[in-house]
Each structure stands twice: as structure tokens, then as C-alpha cells.
Design a protein that fits this description.
Blueprint (H helix, E strand, L loop, with lengths): L4 E7 L3 H5 L4 E9 L2 E9 L24 E3 L2 H14 L3 E6 L4 H4 L2 H11 L6 E6 L3 H6 L2 H8 L4 E5 L10 E5 L3 E5 L7 E4 L3 H17 L1 E2 L1 H5 L3
Parallel strand pairs: 5-6, 6-7
Antiparallel strand pairs: 1-3, 2-3, 4-10, 5-8, 7-11, 8-9, 9-10
Pfam families: DUF7931
Protein name: DUF7931 domain-containing protein
């Protein structure tokens, strides 16, 4: 049976070590043997099949199995665009600040627009920890959300999520892209990983339920 997730209980003094190795905190700090601990989990690739980033154009959402190591900004940007462009139903994006280096470009916006208009049930949910940069500097996705407000929703995450440092997205409940730290571009992408997508979607939906629409973004006209 394929293992999809590793779980452990880390002493709080070791949390930074596990964060550097793609683990994410879950729940509240608890005491064990009078020492504070934190539940942590790490999602694993669905298969041990490594796909070279140069083969990105061949990757088909919902069909191609294996994972792509993302090494830098351009890897992330092009993989996000390629995956979203194939979406037909949904995009769920959890991001600290809608990093403009990845998400504020014409190709990404066109891919999101195509997905949003693909069918009457298409839905794009974007969850942001800190929308202040988007409000201050503007962002193409905000204008698109204003024009297609029945399909694209942007919420501000609840305070419970403020320690969330990673970025992840799920497309059509099968494709996933994740980065352990928003300020670094190393990450992983899989175009056909429904099991891991379900795990990430559960995390996303729980955070979405606690979130609220961001009034400043609704008022912002680019």
C-alpha cells in the first residue's frame, strides 16, 4: 500500500528543523512528559517516479503519474500556469501573499479566466494570509475576481492560520503544487495525485470555513 503521509510529534524546540524538511504543524501545542510538543505531518509524493522539469509540456492533469521537483521561480511559475490551464472544475489556492512573481502575470490570469468560464460549476477559491501587499500594490487576479465575482472568491485567512508558512494549490481535486516556505521556491508538483489532493483539500476547506471575504479586495479596482 502506498504511503501518502508521515506523522510525528515534535518537541517545539525542533519545529524549525522539521519545517525545513517539508513538515507542517497540525493542531495545538500539547504537553508530553512535561515537554511541549507539536503534531506535524508531511505529505509524500504519490509515486517514486521523478519527472524532469523539461518534460513539463507533456504533463496531463489527471493522467500523468509522478512528481516534479521545482527548483526555482521559473519552475514554479510555468508549472502553475501549465496545471491551471488544464483545469476544468476548480482551483483552491492557499498563499500567504499571492506572490506576484508567480501569480501576477498575464499567462496565469488567462489560465484562471479560462478555468472560471469553463462551465457553470467552475469555482476558484483563493485564501490569503496577509492581503496588505495586494491592496497596496494591486494584483491582476483581484480585477479578474471583480469581473467574474460569481466564480472567483478571495478570502482572508483566520488568525488561526497566521503561522501557516507554506503555499499550496489543488486543481480539479487531482493536481497539486506545494512549497514548504513561501519565501523559497523549492517545491513539488504532481499532475495526478488524488490521494494527496484530498488531504490538502481537507486542510484547505477547514481553513476556508474559518475565513472571511476581504472587504479591501472587493473595493479594489486596478
Amino acid at each position: 500500500r502506498q504511503l501518502h503521509r508521515v506523522k510525528l510529534d515534535a518537541q517545539t524546540q525542533a519545529i524549525d528543523f522539521y519545517l525545513r524538511h517539508d513538515f507542517a504543524p497540525q493542531g495545538e501545542v500539547f504537553m508530553d512528559a512535561n515537554i511541549p510538543h507539536q503534531h506535524m505531518t508531511r505529505n509524500l509524493p504519490s509515486l517514486d517516479v521523478h519527472i524532469n522539469i523539461n518534460d513539463l509540456p507533456k504533463q496531463v492533469l489527471g493522467e500523468t503519474r509522478g512528481y516534479i521537483d521545482l527548483k526555482g521561480r521559473e519552475d514554479n511559475k510555468q508549472t502553475v500556469i501549465h496545471m491551471v490551464a488544464q483545469g476544468q472544475r476548480s482551483l483552491n489556492l492557499f498563499t500567504p501573499n499571492l506572490d506576484p512573481r508567480i501569480f501576477d502575470n498575464e499567462e496565469f490570469i488567462e489560465a484562471v479566466k479560462k478555468l472560471a468560464l469553463c462551465n457553470s460549476r467552475s469555482r476558484i477559491n483563493i485564501l490569503i494570509l496577509d492581503p496588505s501587499e495586494v491592496v497596496t500594490h494591486g494584483h491582476r487576479i483581484v480585477e479578474l475576481a471583480r469581473r467574474i465575482s460569481s466564480r472567483i472568491f478571495i478570502h482572508r485567512a483566520d488568525e488561526e492560520e497566521q503561522n501557516h508558512v507554506n503555499t499550496f494549490m489543488i486543481v480539479d481535486d487531482v493536481g497539486i503544487i506545494r512549497r514548504a516556505h513561501n519565501d523559497r521556491f523549492e517545491g513539488l508538483a504532481e499532475f495526478n495525485s488524488p490521494a494527496e489532493a484530498r488531504l490538502l483539500l481537507k486542510t484547505f476547506n477547514e481553513a476556508w470555513e474559518r475565513s472571511q471575504p476581504e472587504p479591501e479586495l472587493r473595493r479594489l479596482h486596478l
